[in-house]
UniProtKB/TrEMBL annotation:
Protein name: tRNA modification GTPase MnmE
Organism this protein belongs to: Dankookia rubra
The entry's keywords: Cytoplasm, GTP-binding, Hydrolase, Magnesium, Metal-binding, Nucleotide-binding, Potassium, tRNA processing
Residues binding Mg(2+): 229, 250
Protein's gene: mnmE
Residues reported to bind GTP: 225-230, 244-250, 269-272
Family per record: Belongs to the TRAFAC class TrmE-Era-EngA-EngB-Septin-like GTPase superfamily. TrmE GTPase family.
Entry coiled-coil feature ranges: none
Any Gene Ontology biological process: tRNA methylation
Enzyme class: hydrolase
Cofactor-binding details, from the entry: Binds 1 potassium ion per subunit.
Gene Ontology MF terms: GTP binding; GTPase activity; metal ion binding
Primary localisation category: cytoplasm
Amino acid sequence: MVEATIFALASGAGRAAVALLRLSGSGTAGVVAALAGGLPPPRRASLRRLRDPRTAELLDQALVLWFPGPASYTGEDSAELHLHGGPAVIAGVAEALVSAGARPAEPGEFTRRAFLNGRMDLTAAEGIADLVAAETVAQRRQALRQAEGALATLYGGWTARLTALLARQEAFIEFEDEDLPTGLDDAVALGSAALRAEIAAHLADAGRGERLREGLLVAILGAPNAGKSSLLNALAGREAAIVSARAGTTRDVVEVRLDLAGVPVTLADTAGLREAADEIEAEGVRRACRRAEEADLVIAVFAADQAPDGATLAWVTHAALVLANKLDLAPAPTAIGGVVPLGISVRTGAGLDALRIRLAEEAGARAGLAAEATLTRPRHRAALTEAAGWLAELDTASLPELRAEALRAALRAIGRITGRVGVEAVLDAVFGEFCIGK
């Protein structure tokens, strides 16, 4: 099947010094030649005048790079046009490309073609999508490792072992009367049990990779005027929340995005926990409790100059951090709800450096970059859970044929992660995350 020639802006939208237009497809050579007056040498940046093939009007003076397939990102003939970044230049060249026979690409279509042409597996494609979206250093490192094949190598090894186990099981079925090595069936059982244990250990990662990819949610809870909004502003380094001595100022959840030790964190300031004075404040308190229930980390804030309030005390057992604020007014209590609090003063800044260190440690423990390849998506977890379930079936399967079918099902489940089998149902979801030019 001959794929259409596609193009897309691979650099950011808006006015810039340089804009990058990427092309791919069997007709790329003809399209580039029509605009540039011929093809440049492969993989060598060449300065060319780009003209509209219909009118010969000069559109831009640009660098043109030509990448003959299959040695290209997509595995097809590809090219890049490095244009001046004015919107009129981009629009004029795009119109000329359409007139020359190309069409605008769909989101993720370049990487989808790379996958279909065997240039990468599905986990690597997802790693590239994560790399494009990475906000922090740790996210970038995790995405790079996945894009370079860390997960593919791990799952590929498991696939090879499953294939070998299935081959042995099939041999036991098909050639039972032949002179086969003794203990072949037992070897399959032992091998599948070992593999199941490895998958179980891989799954027992507390969702670190997924949390790093998506980011953590941290909720700040406390009574009115405990200093929650001031704490949010201090950690954010800006006036994100309104601070007032009047109780009940914060009615809705106020959120800011932070980078803690390379982990993206959404920090949420919530309404003060108390008996609400009206239905609006009651809704704010309800939302505060709901946000705390959803959070990966809860910060319970108490005022050092006041007796601990019961509403916040109820959350101490759930809180990873218990803070005694307003050290400028009173010393921190030795314990709050049986927990030794971290003393701080948002007003003077006392204890804030220690708090930032502690928050970074907590974020790293929940979502820091692990030394080994980690799961990054729910679909990975679901497929591996299914595979482990099928391998567990071997313990109770009474017939060799049933054991072989369980091995085949486990193989299919792992294959869906890398895209070797049954990928059509997940392709649109995976590649729909990409920007157009990727």
